Amino acid sequence: MLLDNKKSYYAFYTGDVSKDLKDNNISDFIVLNKELVVIYVDMDFEEKTFKKIKSINYYKISDEMSSLMDITNNLEKGEAISDLSEIDYIDKNPYINIRGKNTLIAIIDSGIDYLHPDFIDENKKSKIYSIWDQNKEGTHPEGMIFGAEYTNEDINNAILNNDSSLTSDDVGTGTIASGIVCSQGKLNKTFKGIATQSRIIVVKLKNYKSKYDKDKISYKNTDFLAAIKYVFDISSKLRLPIIINLTVATMSNGFNDISLIDTFDEINRSGVFIVGGAGNQGNTAIHFYDKIEEKNDIKDVIVQVGNQDALDIVIECRDIDIIGAKIISPSGELSYTANYTPKNPINSGRFNLENTNYNMQLVYPYILTGRQRLEISLEDVKPGIWTIRLIPEQIINGEFDIYLPNKNLMSEDTRFIDPDSLNTITNYSQGSPVITVGAFNDKTDSMWLGSSKGLSTNIKPDIVAPGVDIISTFTNSSYNTATGTGVSSSIVSGIVAVIAEYLVEQSEFSRITLFSDVIKTYLMLGADKKETYIYPNVSQGYGILNLKNTIEEISNNL
Known about the structure:
Elements: E1 6-13, H1 17-23, E2 29-31, E3 36-42, E4 56-61, E5 64-67, E6 70-71, H2 81-85, H3 88-92, E7 104-109, E8 128-133, E9 148-151, H4 152-160, H5 173-182, E10 199-204, E11 208-209, E12 217-220, H6 221-238, E13 242-246, E14 248-249, E15 272-277, E16 287-291, E17 299-305, E18 310-317, E19 322-328, E20 346-351, E21 356-363, E22 373-379, E23 384-394, E24 399-403, E25 415-416, E26 435-441, E27 446-447, E28 463-466, E29 470-474, E30 478-483, H7 485-505, H8 510-513, H9 516-526, H10 547-557
Parallel strand pairs: 7-10, 7-13, 8-10, 13-15, 15-26, 26-28
Antiparallel strand pairs: 1-3, 1-4, 2-3, 5-12, 5-14, 6-30, 8-9, 11-12, 16-24, 17-23, 17-25, 18-22, 18-24, 19-23, 20-21, 21-22, 26-27, 29-30
Helix pairs in contact: 5-7, 9-10
């Protein structure tokens, strides 16, 4: 199946969803787990069909995702992973020989340059267990309905024949992430990765033109969730510890203590670790926060919109409040008011002077938070000053957050006029099982300004790690630099693989220590804490990654 002419949904279900979908002439779907299914349908499919399917409890069209890395092309001033991660502490220690042996690391991103020498060992064998390229037609992975899978044998044969035709990395971020976690440094030992003895599973996500700006690349969370299932299926078969490195993200959000990833039972099993970039939205003006004091307190929130094709806006309440809204266009036209009704209808309309269509839907309670979520979608949006008029219906606490999409999917000029940098952690990294990583700038010995921040009531990130101008493998057997929390999460993913091997070696303790919360605690205990700050805090969490201290904390507790 080709996805180019399809749209996709994710849905929560109970009962026999496979039978119900087939009975309604829907044949392209993947049952991910006991709660979640992703569904692929033609572009003219009518959503009201889902309301006839008794096993579907909630459905939503796919969310856009974007990279947590910016390629910076700054090799001259770039910094080597080995220096910043302190992995040389292990190399120089005669009593420790751990580099991630018998661990798997999943890279779900833009693919990989599998012919890069740094991913090939001395026997001309690839470190890649498998690649699932979602963009190509071929032999699908078991249980999947699209894309082409290439096994280790396929990749090794391609290496012997210097055949680059299997799959490619057209962006470079996937190759960068892969190099950070496991590069052999064959072309340049200075640029060696962290878990050099680990193996990687690579998923090249299907790429799309962003609906916000057609010149920019985006991914879909339906394809991403299918990739999560693919990775879990492989790790279960091989019975090896797996680290899933989250280097792509959906929109930031407020208080999702759980996410769609939490529907997978595997996430809480021993030997399964999710490491996620906190987000790159710390200084991008995509978040607004305020408080409504009483029911008749109407507030206007100003959004400056640049040249782009569409815009999504999400309004979340922090308590059981209900806040309706209407939109005012640059020319002064008013939309319908989206307010609470039990069936959560979609309000649709058009701004005639701007020729902009809109949809507004207030969902209460939203399935992942139990609180309000009001979604606003503007199509053919025009540049100018747009106003969100908030109309309170039920006020208990009064605090609310409003979010725009990730900045790298939109025009640089699109922003809130009075933004707030707090509470900008991306969706999948909000959950408590995730080891959430912010980005630290070693060049200035301070936080990278773009690193997303959490809240004092819900501490995220957990730790921070280097994330500015880090040198790693790149396309065409080269090296390049990248910046962002996806870089930081890749460094921590490699570190977690090394720690997992170390704990497995302590066989008496491996069962009880290979849980994500345990390793997260060790990372927090070992983190550097600057005297000028109080920890934990919303920017640095529990401190700056320190491998040596972390290993020592583990040793002291075994």
